[in-house]
């Protein structure tokens, strides 16, 4: 018997099980040693699968924010208003009920640590979606993974060390502090999403490592693959120490632990012969691992072969927790607890629909209808190598009809125009963030990169230039305004004006903060996104804002030295 095996487990009669939901970002189904990938070692994740149930055909969305919406609401992402991964399109409508909402009402302590990617301004913020505690970032990707600028319940803070290690430290602390009451811990890691940063020891193991051949070998960026797999091994180490902390707290027998990814791999690499990658509605773009462990309750080593979906997690976890919930809106997800807990449980055939940016596929227990309406028999051809449309005309016709019904629902549910503004000044939330991501630039101002999520603005050179946000001030109030910026010493002196209707604040850039790009020294391969900067913080002053909707504008009234600043973020803190 090991020391860990001898740790007594706590008894908490009458309380539901703890739930730990671990979500990785851009990790493919094949990025695990248990999937057969010879280039990566994931002993802790493999053990999680071996100690519980592994789902062989579990499907998520093609990209990040839709999967988050679906697992948190149990509904197709397009029903909740999610149509993009940035600039407001990643937000779930405010009348959606999240898993954290329901668990919180049932007495659970709720916390999220990591990448939220479902809205930054309260009540879209995680603290407004059922999470008492949030530590991480709300954007779709982040530009720096070492000592990163993060937030804690809306307040900007500085992280410590490598972000995945740091988030895991926070998760372990939460487990240790909440051993007496049931908790829901949501841990959405942001790797192996780019930029490809990982601590050097992990990279050194992969720098020159041979990689297996696969169907896309000629299109593979091997440096990117090596970095991604190094990041996966870091994830595995962190998952291992989190599970060990649960064991040491005496909670392992009373904790459901889940692991999945949010979409297919973010590059062409070994993926078990599956077709496609992130962004594709083929198998390789939407098939994810799902492991569920509940020591003593779920049979170890069990596999589920039925078609399942991220939307199923919402009703499944409530069922496993013994929570009776009557949904306020119809759920698309199904309760998987019979498949998890029972041997040979009856399970009717079903369709799982995948959709993103006008691409759609449909699958059931046997077949896949792809975005071109080609039919594949997944029972004998999981890699989608042979079109069988002519062999199964009735199946083809039926699946095309079902797919068209789903596409009609998409057209009905997704508005042609997003009329939701960015909320500001909710009376129940002190901190408000307006990042460059959510702003519209006018005049000469340029975004640092075509990917908005972790970008900043530069080339602000004219009094005709401005940044604007479409906002709705939810309650009258006075706010302390701070700007995260860089400005060379020789450019100090510009006068800024922040205006919404008749509410105006003027202030001056009085202190330099020398631009310093960070990240290149930690990048293992070249990035597509912007490098991050070290940001200074300046106070613009206090502004009183009146309740109502309109355009919040930031512009320069005077630019005595040719340039205003590089702009990353503006915060408004209710006084």
In short:
The chain is an alpha+beta fold. It has helices at residues 43-50, 64-73, 99-105, 163-177, 200-206, 222-248, 283-286, 313-320, 337-341, 393-413; strands at 18-24, 53-59, 109-115, 133-137, 149-152, 155-158, 183-188, 255-261, 287-293, 302-309, 352-356, 359-363, 367-369, 375-377, 422-424, 431-435, 440-442, 446-447, 457-458, 466-473, 477-486, 495-500, 503-508, 517-518, 532-533, 536-545, 548-558, 566-574.
Describe the structure.
- This protein has helices at 43-50, 64-73, 99-105, 163-177, 200-206, 222-248, 283-286, 313-320, 337-341, 393-413, and strands spanning 18-24, 53-59, 109-115, 133-137, 149-152, 155-158, 183-188, 255-261, 287-293, 302-309, 352-356, 359-363, 367-369, 375-377, 422-424, 431-435, 440-442, 446-447, 457-458, 466-473, 477-486, 495-500, 503-508, 517-518, 532-533, 536-545, 548-558, 566-574.
- It has 575 residues and is of the alpha+beta class.
- The chain folds into 3 domains: 18-343, 3-Layer(aba) Sandwich (Alkaline Phosphatase, subunit A); 354-413, no CATH class; 422-574, Jelly Rolls, CATH 2.60.120.260.
- Strand 13 and strand 14 (375-377) form a beta hairpin.
- Helix 4 runs parallel beside helix 6 (222-248) and helix 5 packs across helix 6.
- The longest helix has 27 residues, at 222-248.
- The model is unreliable at 1-13 (pLDDT under 50).
């Amino acid at each position: 018997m090991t020391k860990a095996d001898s740790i007594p487990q706590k008894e908490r009669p009458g309380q539901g099980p703890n739930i730990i939901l671990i979500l990785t970002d851009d990790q493919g189904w094949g990025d695990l040693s248990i999937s057969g990938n010879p280039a990566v070692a994931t002993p802790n994740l493999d053990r999680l699968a071996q100690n519980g149930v592994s789902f062989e055909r579990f499907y998520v969305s093609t990209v990040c924010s839709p999967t988050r919406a679906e697992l948190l609401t149990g509904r197709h992402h397009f029903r909740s208003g999610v149509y993009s991964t940035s600039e407001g399109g990643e937000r779930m409508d405010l009348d959606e009920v999240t898993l954290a909402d329901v668990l919180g009402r049932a007495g659970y302590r709720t916390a999220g640590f990591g990448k939220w990617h479902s809205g930054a301004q309260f009540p879209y913020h995680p603290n407004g979606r059922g999470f008492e505690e949030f530590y991480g970032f709300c954007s779709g990707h982040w530009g720096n993974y070492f000592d990163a600028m993060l937030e804690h319940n809306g307040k900007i803070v500085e992280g410590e060390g490598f972000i995945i290690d740091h988030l895991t430290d926070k998760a372990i602390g939460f487990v240790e502090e909440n051993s007496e009451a049931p908790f829901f811990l949501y841990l959405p890691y942001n790797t192996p999403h780019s930029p490809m940063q990982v601590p050097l020891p992990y990279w050194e193991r992969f720098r020159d490592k041979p990689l297996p051949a696969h169907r896309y070998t000629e299109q593979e960026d091997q440096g990117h693959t090596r970095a991604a797999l190094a990041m996966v091994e870091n994830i595995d180490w962190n998952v291992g120490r989190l599970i060990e902390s649960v064991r040491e707290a005496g909670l392992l027998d009373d904790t459901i632990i889940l692991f999945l990814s949010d979409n297919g791999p973010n590059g062409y690499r070994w993926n078990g012969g599956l077709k496609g990658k992130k962004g594709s509605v083929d198998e390789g773009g939407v098939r994810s691992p799902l492991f569920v462990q509940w020591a003593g309750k779920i049979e170890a080593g069990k596999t589920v072969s039925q078609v399942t979906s991220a939307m199923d997690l919402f009703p499944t976890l409530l069922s496993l927790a013994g929570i009776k919930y009557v949904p306020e809106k119809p759920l698309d997800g199904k309760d998987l607890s019979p498949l998890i807990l029972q041997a040979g449980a009856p399970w009717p055939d079903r369709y799982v629909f995948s959709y993103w940016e006008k691409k759609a596929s449909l699958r059931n227990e046997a077949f896949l209808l792809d975005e071109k309406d080609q039919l594949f028999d997944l029972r004998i051809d999981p890699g989608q190598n042979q079109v069988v449309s002519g062999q199964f005309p009735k199946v083809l016709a039926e699946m095309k009809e079902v797919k068209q019904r789903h596409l009609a629902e998409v057209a009905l549910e997704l508005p042609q125009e997003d009329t939701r503004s960015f909320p500001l000044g909710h009376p129940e939330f002190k901190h408000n963030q307006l990042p460059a991501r959510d702003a519209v630039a006018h005049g000469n101002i340029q975004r640092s990169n075509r990917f908005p999520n972790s970008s900043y603005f530069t080339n602000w050179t004219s009094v005709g230039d401005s940044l604007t946000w479409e906002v709705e001030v939810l309650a009258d109030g006075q706010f302390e305004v701070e700007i995260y910026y860089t400005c060379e010493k020789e450019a100090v002196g510009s006068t800024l004006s922040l205006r919404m209707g008749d509410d105006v604040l003027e202030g001056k850039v009085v202190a330099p903060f020398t631009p310093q790009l960070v990240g290149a020294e930690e990048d293992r391969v070249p990035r597509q996104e912007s490098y991050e900067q070290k940001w200074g913080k300046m106070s613009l002053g206090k502004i009183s804002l009146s309740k109502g909707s309109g355009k919040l504008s930031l512009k320069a009234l005077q630019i005595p030295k040719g340039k205003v600043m590089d702009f990353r973020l503006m915060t408004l803190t209710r006084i």
